[in-house]
Hints:
The protein is built from ten helices and twelve strands. It has helices spanning 17-28, 45-55, 68-73, 80-85, 104-115, 132-143, 156-166, 229-236, 246-261, 268-274, and strands at 3-9, 32-38, 58-63, 77-78, 90-94, 97-101, 124-128, 148-153, 174-179, 189-194, 212-220, 241-244.
Amino acid sequence: MTDRYAVIGHPVAHSKSPLxxxxxxxxxxxxxxxxxxxxxxxxxxFAGALAAFRAAGGRGMNVTLPFKLEALAAADVASADxxxxxxxxxxxxxxxxxxxxNFDGLGLVRDIEVNMGLPLAGxxxxxxxxxxxxxxxxxPLARAGAARIHIANRTAAKADALAxxxxxxxxxxxxxxxxxxxxxxxxVFDVVLNATSASLDGDTLPVPASAFAPxxxxxxxxxxxxxxxxxxxxxxxxxxxxxxxxxxxVEQAAEAFAWWRGVRPDTxxxxxxxxxxxx
Length: 279
Ligand code: ATR
């Protein structure tokens, strides 16, 4: 029997997940169908759609905005990444149990380390923003061996609070937080990640050119927008390694696929198909 999976969100029509998982299923010969569920805006819509999908024999789901918090709350068990991110982006139904994971941060790490060939061990990382995207990235970046992570956010107090909350979970990684305008002068970073939504508004972040170490990677977590204001800023600062979040998207999908199906798909062909040139 064909196993059923889906991505749930609102709105969700723009999601690339059905395309990605369809290509993975084809390449690995898995008998599965991957659909799209728009649960709508009504209170309780997520819980209702989740129950209906499970009752119809669904095996697992990806979860996107605005339901990632509710997805974690609906789970009987959750991974450490999901718990510390405070959000789930993948669910698996095992008997009457709902299991939750958050693969966004791991997808980011795999994209940087495997696809871009940049080991994170010992690196200094600057994370711009203190919302859900940053929260999900922190633990996986630290686990990959980043020596230092600084969170810089427009609202400094949010970055401070997030750093204070997550610091006890980081063993060998120095974590700090502060305002966007209070980067320590002279401090340089090997990886600068934009986890804010500033580029959506066309806003440029006040990151000084001096913050990019020679050979630094500038990574825009949004994807498919070409050269965003952040990537333009990095380019103008002399940064030659630029990336957007398409690799993170494809790698988190591969992690979910492997978790559901027990086989990890090759991501290269899918990446090549979805990538938008950064020029
Ligand atoms: P997500 O869950 O996608 O991370 P979020 O929780 O709404 O989204 O967080 C968005 C982040 O982008 C926040 O860190 C926000 O900064 P504030 O905490 O000060 O609101 C940041 N952000 C959004 N628009 C921005 C802009 N124009 N300039 C700088 N930071 C911006």
